[in-house]
Amino acid sequence: MVKCSKIEFLAAVASTHVRDGENVFGGTGLPLLASLLAKETHAPHANLISEAGFIDARPRNVPLSVADSRFYYGCSASIGLIETLGFILQAGRVDVGFLGAAQIDEYGNLNTTYIGSFDKPKIKLPGSGGGNDIASSAKRLIIIMTHEKRKFVKKLDYFTSPGHLEGPGSRKKWSMVGGGPSVVITDKCQFDFDPKTLKIRLMSVHPGFTVKDILDDVMFDVIVPDRVPTTKEPTQEQIDIMHRLDPNGIYLAKGGE
Amino acid sequence: MTGTEIDDKRITLEEAARIVPDGAHLFWGGFGYQRAPIAFARELVRQKKRGLTIYTCGSEVDLEIMVGAGVATRFDIAFTAIEALGLANNMRRRVAEGKAQVEDYSNLAMAMRFMGGALNVPFMPIRSLMGTDMVQYSRYRGDKKLKVIDCPFTGEKICLVPSAKPDFSIIHVQRVDKTGNAQIDGIVGEDLEGARCGKKLIVLAEELIDVDEVRSRPDQTKIPAMYVSHVVVAPFIAHPVQCHNYYDYDLEHLMMFHKMTKTEEGWQEYLKSFILDVENHYEYLNHVGWEHLMSLRAKKPWGY
User: Fold this and answer.
1) How far is A227 from chain B, CA to nearest CA, in Å?
2) A247, exposed or middle or buried, with CB in 10 Å at 0-12, 13-18, 19+?
């Protein structure tokens, strides 16, 4: 078994969901690391787009901001936000978007805005940023989260970005461009969505965890198929590449969201 | 008199901040760690402005400074944090205290609000926000926040966001001539729309160039002088974040800032040391130290 941290495992698994040649909206943090890793391994033709305006980016060091100059050299176009979030994303040209969140519900809806009530918020989180736009309009969405029970909630404190909303038909009702979340990856397991109900479903469990561990660590009912496979471990090559991309461990050393 | 007829629009940073009255609404330029007009935020604090409303997609250190010092109290924004370093501590505290209010939008929604303002139309349609709490809840705009309607042409649901026409647009660029023709390197974020939506535009630039330089490469002009009311030229305006081709972010300072803002005491100490106890922008740069600042200068060909 390859020795790796929970964060390394999470980023490596996330990278496997990027397909070669896709237009990918990465953002910063673990999503960026995952998409860069995909590009360095099985998806060399993935087109990484940062909402600040960088298109077809191939940074040599990991950027700390979506607008970081580290995205600039080697990208094929450096434009702006109407270009990326408007002409590219809203027009339906993004294949896959990556998002993290502080809370997720059983339909993959996300909260990145407030903890506590709207009227008297306990914690102001960053807000939507481009998250709501990506969740609304990317063809499919990959959600990355560290696995803590308090994050997998029956009801979001605030509903920032759409997953499958209230289930079948909801996205069509709001004429959404994109197809919604396809997978949720945590440091303990992978979830996908039951095609009939669009509710979260256990897809695979990472080595060292049981189905019970997962069910104990979410606050809603999870659909569990008859057979739940173990998630494939990262390779040493994947781990090495991640450390080359993030030599100072800015993302690998912490929870990173 | 049109903008192009004024030969020299240069004023000092202090004079530019003095033009902004209490209670004014400002478009705020820059995106993430890039080209943020932070020196202007520090000057607004020194001049003890109050009751400002800020419009932007996402800003970071500058919003923290303005909300922390009580200069700005309302924010039409999509995002605030110190990105890779973590939550915006001052914003978090002021919101919890009820001293600051955020009207939450998405980045595309804000960019389209600026586009609408620049185009002089009352609203712009977007395909985001629908079905979420950003439609359900408003902090202070009430039913003027947005509207979801059935499209009169196709019948599908569409979200209308109100155009923004703030009193001022504050933009930081790499280069400008004295009449206001502004050049931006790297990404523009939402600054092209933002520069054109405000009633008055103040351009802050790292470098002054001659009008002849502008006319020899006119495709580099991202904001023509005709939009520009005032020009401020000063170095390291975005410190501690970056300005493409000029300097990198000061990660050490950013980490110190984020750490100090974790407590009110820490923030008050930063506020005193780096803003209130320095007389002006140059005193701030002296305080940070020129040897340190020069170590941040961008290297070719990387731009950081």
Assistant:
1) 34
2) exposed
Which of B80, B134, B188 lies nearest to residue A80, judging by beta carbons? B188
What are chain B's domains? 3-106+165-294 (3.40.1080.10), 118-162 (no CATH)
Interface contact B42, partner A, CB < 8 A: no
Judged against a pLDDT cut of 90, whether residue B123 lies above it is answered with: yes
Whether complex ipTM tops 0.90: yes
Helix axes B251-260, B61-68, angle to 10 degrees: 30
Count other C-beta atoms under 10 Å from residue A179's C-beta: 13
**CA A239 and chain centroid, separation:** 19
Q: Does A64 touch chain B (CB under 8 A)?
A: yes
- Interface contact A158, partner B, CB < 8 A: yes
Of the listed ranges A48-62, B164-178, B196-210, the least confidently predicted one is A48-62
Radius of gyration of chain B (CA): 19
**Domains present along chain A, CATH in parentheses:** 6-245 (3.40.1080.10)
Q: What is the largest CA-CA distance in chain B?
A: 62
Find where tokens 């009702």 sit: A173
At residue B152's C-alpha, the angle toward residues B148 and B158, to 5°, is 30
Q: In whole angstroms, give the CA distance from residue A222 to residue A147.
A: 14
CA-to-CA separations, B56 to A54, B66, B104, in angstroms, rounded: 19, 13, 11
Nearest-Cα residue of chain A relative to residue B149 = A174
Contact, A112 vs A128, CB < 8 A?
A: yes
Residues of A in contact with B95 (CB under 8 A): 121, 124
- Residue A244 — very low, low, confident or very high, per pLDDT cuts 50/70/90? very high
Angle, CA B86 vertex, CA B38 and CA B68 arms, to 5°: 45
CB atoms within 10 A of CB B76: 25
Per-residue pLDDT of B244-272, as tens digits, reads 999 999 999 999 999 999 999 999 999 99
Q: What is the pLDDT of residues B198-246, one digit of tens each?
A: 999 999 999 999 999 999 999 999 999 999 999 999 999 999 999 999 9
